[in-house]
Amino acid sequence: MTRAQHPWRLITTLGAPPNFNMALDEALLEIGGAPTLRLYTWQPDTLSLGYFQKYAEVPGVAQASHVVRRITGGGAIHHAGELTFSLTTDLSDPIYQGAVPRSYERVHFAVIQALGQVGVRAKLRLDDSLASDQAATGMCFHHSTPLDIAWMGRKGMGSAQRRRGGRVLHHGSIKLATTPIEGAIATTSECGPCTEPADLIPHLCLAFEQELGMRLERGVPSPAERELASRLEPRYSDPEFLRRR
């Protein structure tokens, strides 16, 4: 259902360095500027640990080119063959009002609509069991919850939030292809021609506008956001921060 639209800034940064990706998202959360949808990929391939994960309990860290720790929770994600999105806004935004699970449902429903436009018959996992679930890997796509998005009997999108200071940062990862670290998970490339981020981005933007009431306007980070991100970048691969748990 289309809602009354309000302006959101759209920032697209494909092939960005991993520390920059995480630092900019945190800066967008902290500065408190315009509601922002950010779409990005990572170069080089990167394993991001969930905020509460123990470094030693994620065997995949030895196989990735780079490792960072997110400030959002959840399991580890190998950022290769995927599109990452982040939403940053005030908790008063209609998307995030009410119970936390409802906000996941709203965002995930929009993603499901976008995936349908590229031939992926995705749905919420709900009570289904998934073939991609595995024990003791620490990987996001090997552990599923009822609100995760799945297709072909496997998990294909995961997301997590961080809420602080009346704001929210919502991370999402949509898998276009798998990697040796993640193995047999759901990917868009199995279902059709959606093999690159550019194949999915216009459909995702349209679905967010139609289902979440956004009016997307292309923009760039403000000088204040860039300055804070620059100061935050070194922390994300600092050994003390990585191994803090």
Radius of gyration, in angstroms, nearest whole number: 17 Å
Quaternary state of the chains: single chain
User: From the helix content, strand content and strand pairing, which structural class follows?
Assistant: alpha/beta
The SSE string, one letter per element, is EHEEEEEHEEEEHEHH
Shape: globular
Compute the number of strand runs. Answer: 11
Secondary structure tally, helices:
5
> What is the average per-residue confidence, as pLDDT, rounded to a whole number?
95
**Which regions are unreliable across 5 or more consecutive residues at pLDDT < 50?**
none
Strand content: 25-35%
Helix content: 10-25%
Which class in CATH terms? Answer: Alpha Beta
From the 3D coordinates, which CATH architecture would you assign? 2-Layer Sandwich
Write a compact overview of the structure shown.
The protein is α/β, with parallel strands linked by helices and 245 residues long. The chain has helices at 18-31, 100-116, 197-212, 223-232, 239-242; strands at 6-16, 36-42, 46-49, 66-69, 77-79, 82-90, 123-124, 149-151, 154-164, 167-175, 214-218.
